[in-house]
Amino acid sequence: MAPRNKYSVILPTYNERKNLPIIVWLLNDSFTKNGFEYEIIIVDDASPDNTAEIARQLQTAFPNRIILKQRSGKLGLGTAYVHGLQFATGNFVIIMDADFSHHPKFIPDMIRVQSTKDYDIVTGTRYSGKHGGVYGWDLKRKLVSKGANIFADTVLRPGVSDLTGSFRLYKKDVLEKVITKVQSKGYVFQMELMVLAKAMGYSVAEVPISFVDRVYGESKLGSSEIAEYATGVLSLWMRV
Amino acid sequence: MTRAQQTVSIGLLFASTQLYLALFLQLIPLPSIISEEIIPVLPLWALVSFGSYLLAKLGYGVLTFNDVPEAHAELMKEIDLAREDLRTKGVEVD
Fold first, then answer.
1. Range among A101-105, A192-196, B18-22, B49-53 with highest mean pLDDT value
2. Angle, CA A104 vertex, CA A102 and CA A107 arms, to 5°
3. Averaged over B40-58, what is the pLDDT?
4. A220 inside domain
5. Number of domains making up chain A
6. In Å, how far is B56's CA from the nearest CA of chain A?
7. What is the mean predicted confidence (pLDDT) over A193-210?
8. Per the domain annotation, does A193 fall within a domain?
């Protein structure tokens, strides 16, 4: 029998005191129901709301499942993944948002799809499938999202329908190799990761996911975010 | 993009520019209606068509953008369930 797969979920947190226990609960529920081995690595950027305290309570509630790594300040999402990756003991890594916009119930789907053809990466897509889609987006938000995706798709032609999505399963060694080459931060980070992985010849599969927009708190999308995104796509275009 | 694809695309680009230039400079004889009325506006036509294609794709994409209210309803129920269970496990939840 092949050695058992283990899945490491990296959750970067900043002021997620409310969300963290529930997402951990949902993750545990989804993994244990399906009999998968897992661990959760929480990378907390010194949240003022003391997210770390909640994380320690969770360590007691879910023994041997949760690794807490604290950093001294808000150092950003990209470096949080690099940091968390050092402590991952699984052979697969899952990256997702900690705010319920990504539901752990899709992880078993991703794992099943991954095993069909031993894919290097499985990415969630909001743009296809019966269960794929969004909740809580108005027409403007959909227009901007779709427009941004078509723009990136036309310029970069990655062959992936949801380039900016951030709910993904990676083989750990693949993520380790790709992440060292990523230069951008923020919105562009996920996109660059995918475009680089594709350029390096890794295989990618897609799974439809539903995206429930921030249940607590606001997600921001203004003209400065759009400008940041556009320059990010173009700089990637020059590089790959 | 592989090297082979790159070579083919550069070749195609070069060949089509040459062909267009030959047509534009009327080096290849064509009826005057084609060479005077159609050939000069061909690049503009291509640009507008490409733009329309992208706009149509955008419109279609937004129209078929799925809404998943049931995913939200399900999540809300699960959050309540999680809260109750977490309290019994000694985790603070608001």
1. B49-53
2. 110
3. 94
4. yes
5. 1
6. 11
7. 92
8. yes
Domain span holding position A224: 6-239
- Residue A130 reports pLDDT greater than 80: no
- Cβ-Cβ contacts under 8 Å, B75 against chain A: 100, 103, 212, 215
- The yes-or-no verdict on residue A141 having pLDDT over 50 is yes
Q: Do A54 and B75 touch (CB under 8 A)?
A: no
Q: Which of B71, B79, B91 sits opposite A210 (nearest CB)?
A: B71
Q: Is A75 on the interface with B (CB under 8 A)?
A: no
Per-residue pLDDT, averaged over A124-130, amounts to 85
- Residues of chain B in contact with residue A106, where contact means CB-CB under 8 angstroms, are none
List the CATH number of the domain containing A37. Answer: 3.90.550.10
Question: Tokens at residue A45, please?
Answer: 């950027």
Return the pLDDT at A96.
Answer: 92
Beta carbons of A212 and B66 less than 8 Å apart: no
**For residue A1, is it within any domain?**
no
Of A144, A19, A169, A205, the residue nearest A91 (C-alpha): A169
Residue A168 lies in a domain: yes
Smallest Cα–Cα separation from A211: which of A95, A131, A151? A131
